[in-house]
Amino acid sequence: MPYPDLSFADVSSAVVHQNLRPDIPRCCPSAMANIMRRCWDANPDKRPEMDEVVRLLEALDTSKGGGMIPEGQAGGCLCFFRARGP
């Protein structure tokens, strides 16, 4: 939970009235951060449709870490790792 000290009502209110959004970890690839920011746009009409989000996520190049900080240097950062399977 990004806001453990706030109630659901407080978080909901802050998202709507103060544009509260979670911090994007510094190890997050810029392309991923851009997708996140678009999804969090205060104006719902500017947010991408889910099919576009899926397309953008699938297009991310994570073959070389995608710009993420190496695991040993992440300093507690929780980065994503692309896992494909059956």
TrEMBL record:
Pfam families: PK_Tyr_Ser-Thr. This is Serine-threonine/tyrosine-protein kinase catalytic domain-containing protein. Signal peptide: none annotated. Gene3D superfamilies: Transferase(Phosphotransferase) domain 1 (1.10.510.10). InterPro entries: Kinase-like_dom_sf, Ser-Thr/Tyr_kinase_cat_dom, Ser/Thr_Kinases-Pseudokinases. Residues 1-56 form the Serine-threonine/tyrosine-protein kinase catalytic domain. Transmembrane segments: none annotated. GO terms for molecular function: protein serine/threonine kinase activity. One of its GO terms (cellular component) is plasma membrane.
